[in-house]
Amino acid sequence: MSMGVQALLERQEGIRVRVESSTAQALSLARREPQAAVIVISPTLTVDNKEELAQFAAVSKVVFLAKGENTHRSLEALALGVRAVLSVESSAEHLLQVLQTVIAMDAIIMPFAARDGLDQIAAARGSSALAVRTSETLTLREKEVTLLLTQGYTNTEIARKLSITPTTVRSHVHHLLKKLGAASRAQAIALAYETGLIGTIERQLVRTQ
User: Which CATH number does the domain 126-208 belong to among 1.10.8.420, 1.10.10.10, 1.10.10.60, 3.40.390.30?
Assistant: First the structure.
């Protein structure tokens, strides 16, 4: 897989690729020489290697290729700061498309297999006291931005839907991260589902319409 990806990116796209089989060496390189993105392939690291995934996510945009049976756990990886989760069975062309999107835009990408898990988490959490308290700190516009973030929209798309500028969207996202205590958009999305905040916001927005 890694050699096929390297050939596609270097020969067809002209993208310089470094392949490292050692996690320690790859992390050292990413810290020493900032990379546009880091591709992590299971089983070198799995969803259970939370510390290592978080370390990579702290220094670069991480695209994580997980085993098919673990793609439903994508939310766990996103909560660590990973930008995209794909199955290791994905084609090199699909990986290239996701990689280009992650590098070019502030986007979060997860497999369809993880979507049902998100809905189940939101339904199970309901309107927890924490979710209600957190929602009370958010402005109406911040709630709208939060909802669109969890639906996978980019800043540019959110700006179009809400008829505001991308700069204003970035400002709202910045305030959201601060209020949620999240270090990244991915962590904010994970927290919104895990605490039941997203369900609370959805009900509040319906009442305002």
Answer: 1.10.10.10
